[in-house]
């Protein structure tokens, strides 16, 4: 699979479906994604293979007796759902996940493709997030050290 990248905008329809950019669909090997709650009130979208790898890593470290690990399992593993694209290239986002990410029918969404996964945001929420974290970006970039040199 090629690396996923790009920032795309589309509207969520009244049935909770979003048209997925052909550029991203064409890179996928299967006609499905796994969608789950992300961080910062967005959704994370994974290919089945990437999800199985992440799920395996999380569950390999998991313990029902560790409260921190239970939080991670409840937040990422429990709400995850496998969703297929329809014939028109739309992805139907389950209502519980739409609620978590504040995705509204008729509302604009941002699809951010970042290598091995994607995020789906309500566009207004994403704009607010960018404004709130703009001052932290330089420090975050510095945490990557000298990778650009």
Commentary on this structure:
By secondary structure, this protein is an alpha+beta fold. It is built from 6 helices and 8 strands; from the N terminus they run E-E-H-E-E-H-H-E-E-H-E-E-H-H. It has helices spanning 22-25, 48-61, 67-77, 95-100, 123-133, 137-142; strands at residues 4-11, 17-19, 32-37, 43-46, 81-84, 90-92, 108-115, 117-122. The strands form 2 sheets. The chain has a 6-stranded antiparallel beta sheet with strand order 1-7-8-4-3-5. Helix 2 (48-61) packs antiparallel against helix 3.
Short description:
Helix content is 35%, strand content 28%. The chain has 149 residues and is α+β, with helices and mostly antiparallel strands.
Q: Main sheet? A: 6 strands, antiparallel
Task: Output the strand order for the largest sheet.
Answer: 1-7-8-4-3-5
| Helix and strand element order | EEHEEHHEEHEEHH
Average pLDDT for all residues: 92
Number of strands: 8
Task: Give the helix/strand layout.
Layout: E1 4-11, E2 17-19, H1 22-25, E3 32-37, E4 43-46, H2 48-61, H3 67-77, E5 81-84, E6 90-92, H4 95-100, E7 108-115, E8 117-122, H5 123-133, H6 137-142
Antiparallel strand pairs: 1-7, 2-6, 3-4, 3-5, 4-8, 7-8
Helix pairs in contact: 2-3
